[in-house]
From TrEMBL:
NCBIfam families: cinA_nterm, molyb_syn, PncC_domain. InterPro entries: CinA, CinA-like_C, CinA_C, CinA_KH, Competence-induced_CinA, MoaB/Mog-like_dom_sf, MoaB/Mog_dom. Pfam families: CinA, CinA_KH, MoCF_biosynth. It comes from Sorangium atrum. This is CinA-like protein. Residues 4-171 form the MoaB/Mog domain.
Length: 413
């Protein structure tokens, strides 16, 4: 079944926020066996929302809309949904009670905005919100079912998983299966070259790519007579893809890069320390976005040369002779923080993130990183392209990847 997505919010049409809801819903629906054939975005204008809902519902049996169910005056989705179906906007007393309980449990007082969230089109099906106050709801428009969900990603995701997916899953063709491989270290063009011939070797397989710097996801999508056959086909093709890409594949599905690096360190029984200069704590943030207290001992952000010397023991002669951005300083930073924290392994990075500070011999984007471990010391360097954020993220991933490879006894790059 083909599905349409509708994103509602002026902040989206103005580019003030990135529409992550659309990408997440599309991925979840695809994994469930649906085909997302159309996506639209509209601002907080009742007439335009009504027109968009009617247009999408006329061409699709299933539409999922997000956004505009909040307590403020610019949240107009419920009103537009009522107008689209010709129904009255009514206050649902059970929803109002649920909102009141949630608000008062937080020690707050109900206001008009909270009460507004209990207003839904008459005859609609209420979708309880386990993560917030605004309920979702479903309506029928011609032969189409339209579900309206909050725009807050956390609330939208839980409501889709708990309320919408169980209702619509029976309508899925159940003849597809998808595996998402997570890769780092190879650009999309190189991945495409390495995977030439996979689709021809496995009829029914379609490969897709999603770039989110500095990673690329490879989606192995199978379609067959039944879901079990599609599952078997996807696994065979995935094995082929993995063999071709080798250690560039670090995980699958919801695996996160830093989380997998942590698993590699944990599996070796190592304790880790981090020293950062140009990345300013980004590496530590990536690692501690997941449980890390069992292997991560400490981290130091040492921007100034004096901090490198006093905290990490980087020699002043090394700084004078080679500069803060050098292989020698990266090495001494890693060795110093390893010694300071008394750990098995330590990583470091130093560089020029830009947009200023570069020279002819040391351009913006130049970074050095090092890993000091029981087997020795490894130092690497590269000039990263892009803006400051991209240079920092590129350097953070590079040192984490080197750590992953050393901890996992994988070939180093």
């Amino acid at each position: 079944m083909a599905v349409a997505l509708l994103s509602i919010g002026t902040e989206l049409t103005r580019g003030e926020i990135i529409n992550t809801n659309e990408a997440w819903l599309a991925a979840e629906l695809t994994a469930a066996g649906f085909t997302v054939s159309e996506s639209s975005t509209v601002d907080d204008d009742v007439d335009r929302i009504v027109a968009a809902v009617r247009q999408l519902a006329s061409a699709h049996r299933l539409v999922i809309a997000t956004g505009g169910l909040g307590p403020t005056t610019d949240d107009l989705t419920a009103q537009a949904a009522a107008r689209a179906t010709g129904a009255d906007l009514v206050r649902d007393e059970s929803t109002l009670l649920a909102i009141r309980r949630r608000v008062e449990a937080r020690g707050k007082v109900m206001n008009a905005g909270h009460e507004k969230q209990a207003e839904v089109p008459a005859g609609s099906e209420i979708l309880p919100n386990s993560s917030g106050t605004a309920p979702g709801f479903g309506i029928h428009l011609g032969e189409s079912t339209v579900f309206f969900l909050p725009g807050v990603p956390r609330e939208m995701k839980s409501m889709f998983t708990e309320q919408v997916l169980p209702r619509v899953r029976p309508a899925a063709p159940n003849n597809t299966f998808q595996v998402r491989l997570r890769t780092y270290g190879l650009p999309e063009a190189t991945l495409g070259e390495l995977l030439k011939g996979v689709e021809e070797a496995h009829p029914g397989i379609t490969l897709g790519y999603r770039v989110h710097y500095p990673e690329v996801d490879v989606k192995v999508h199978a379609r067959a007579a039944t879901q079990s056959m599609a599952h078997e086909l996807a696994l065979k093709a995935t094995a082929d893809v993995r063999e071709r890409l080798g250690t560039a594949v670090y995980g699958e599905g919801g695996d996160a890069f830093a989380e997998m690096v942590g698993r590699s360190v944990r599996a070796r029984g190592w304790r880790l320390a981090v020293s950062e200069s140009c990345t300013g704590g980004l590496i530590s943030h990536l690692l501690t976005s997941y449980p890390a207290s069992d292997y991560l001992v400490g981290a130091a952000v040492t921007y100034a040369n004096s901090a490198k010397t006093r905290l990490l023991g980087v020699a002043e002669d090394t700084l004078r002779g080679h500069g803060a951005v050098s292989a020698e300083v990266a090495a001494e930073m890693a060795q110093g923080v390893r010694r300071l924290c008394e750990v098995d392994v330590a990583i470091s990075v130093t560089g020029i993130a830009g947009p200023t500070g570069g020279t002819a011999t040391k351009p913006v984007g130049l970074c050095y990183w090092a890993v000091s471990h029981p087997g020795g010391l490894v130092v690497r360097d590269r000039v990263f392209s892009g803006d400051r954020e991209e240079v920092q993220l590129g350097a953070a991933y590079a040192v984490l990847d080197l750590l992953r490879r050393i901890a996992g006894n994988l070939p180093e790059r």
